[in-house]
Amino acid sequence: MYVDKDYIIRIRRELHQIPELGFELEKSMAVIRRELDAIGLPYTESIGKSCIIATLNEGVGNKTIALRADFDALPIAENTGLEFSSRHPGKMHACGHDCHAAMLLGAAKALKAMEKDITCCVKFIFQSAEEILGGAKSICETGFMDGVDTILGCHIRPGSPTGKISINRTCDSACSRGFKLHLYGKASHMASPQHGVDAIAMAVRVYTDVQFLRTRQLSPLEKIVIGVGTIHGGSVNNIVCDHVEMSFSLRTQSTPLNNHIYERIQEIANNVASDMGGRAEFEPLKFTPALRNDLTVSDHVQAAAAKVIGAENVTDKSESMGGEDFAYYLEHKPGCLFNLGITKPDTPYIPLHNEKLIVDEDALDVAPKVYVQYILDQMNK
Fold first, then answer.
1. Are 276 and 197 in contact (CB under 8 A)?
2. Share of the chain above pLDDT 70, in %
3. Exposed / middle / buried, residue 338 (Cβ in 10 Å: 0-12, 13-18, 19+)
4. Is residue 303 exposed (0-12), middle (13-18) or buried (19+ Cβ within 10 Å)?
5. Sheet with 225-233, side-by-side order of all strands
6. pLDDT of residue 206
7. What number of helices (H) and strands (E) belong to the chain?
8. What is the pLDDT of residue 149?
9. Residues 114-139: pLDDT tens digits?
10. Are 8 and 106 in contact, with CB atoms under 8 Å apart?
11. Rounded average pLDDT over 316-326
12. Phi, psi of 192 (to 5 degrees)
């Protein structure tokens, strides 16, 4: 097996310089198209929104294995000092999606070179909008997963040693919901507050009651995050505020529990607003289910990774309350999202979604090798 590390690093650096957000990925898609054309793989853009899906060995064998990489970035101003830093102000590949896309292209190139030895069909998914949690859902809604047997993905993992693979077998990522709460009151002069309805006071009560919900109405044994990331309201000091916007992040390890808590927050906000003479409106932002890897596929990935880097370099990954829309694929077919260490020894830990995230590029040929080995192991089973 030969995986071209230099090629992967070159493509990764090119993508790193042109980060784009959500579904607006024209420059990045042009790079992916160019490379797929050079590799010689046919592809389509008719599945999902701003997604590219390439195919190796259409109709070959009785098994189809999908490999997925996301390639959208984040609205973060880069501060790494790298010579190939972002050329798009206020945007950065701070979650490693440039690495994911480059690694998948590296796997595609390696598999194309050994095409005659591959006895199954392979789908290469270049997915948009993971950060706003829309890309995977848009693909699954087309029925694409009906033609897939298993699916793999890889995510870089800061803090884990370079080249190490880790796999979670319980709950890799949480069921994640983002939403805004708009509280509407009535403006008046602060000298006559009785003529107004104070939206800031409503927000304070909602915030306090939601904390009470977490500490006294939900089991302390459940893993739950209820966070308020922003509160915006008011204009000047002498006017009663008539509108406050609060942004929430709600994370659990099950969809039913997440739905229950969301409904309770809605009840709390509506009751507080009604009691104070105002009203509440909710604005959904995003939702993704909990990500639970298939145990059998996880075992197969572990076995493939052990062949590539040695069993001692494949470890268990702890649970996370982060969100990852790879979970949508796993609602349809078995699969596994594994993690790749990208941090050199004695290097300070810098988390994902950070302006100073640095990736040790020496790790970038490991995931493609695991992809290829998994296919070789499983294509006839």
1. yes
2. 100
3. buried
4. middle
5. 225-233, 243-252, 175-184, 279-288
6. 98
7. 9, 12
8. 98
9. 999 999 999 999 999 999 878 999 99
10. yes
11. 96
12. -130, 65
